[in-house]
Amino acid sequence: MKFTYKMVQIPPNIVVSNKSKTGQDAADYLESVVNEWAGKGWEFMRVDEIGVVSQPGCLGGLIGQKETHIVYYVITFRKET
Q1: Where are the beta strands (DSSP E) in 1-81?
Q2: Are 75 and 50 in contact (CB under 8 A)?
Q3: Are the C-beta atoms of residues 33 and 10 closer than 8 Å to each other?
Q4: What is the pLDDT of residues 20-66, one digit of tens each?
Q5: pTM for the full model?
Q6: CA-to-CA distance for 55 and 60, rounded, in angstroms?
Q7: Where in the chain are the domains?
Q8: Longest dimension (CA), the chain
Q9: How far apart are CA 1 and CA 81, in angstroms?
Q10: What phi-psi label fits residue 32: left (phi over 0), alpha (psi between -120 and 50 degrees) or beta?
């Protein structure tokens, strides 16, 4: 059995309204993304975080800029091919 994989980047933070008291907003957001891709034939696998280090450019290095660390979140889907 062979699979094709798809990674969908999601925001690291989800903005919610003050009216939301259930704490369910993140789950609802993820559910909507997963259902959207499931409707296109993709099977949900997991949510991962990926750390990326960005080095300063030549000028940035000269003025003392440090490397930056950014965390991205992706939902992994697969589809049988």
Answers
A1: 3-10, 43-54, 68-80
A2: no
A3: yes
A4: 666 688 888 899 999 999 999 999 999 999 999 888 888 877 788 88
A5: 0.73
A6: 9
A7: 3-80
A8: 53
A9: 8
A10: alpha
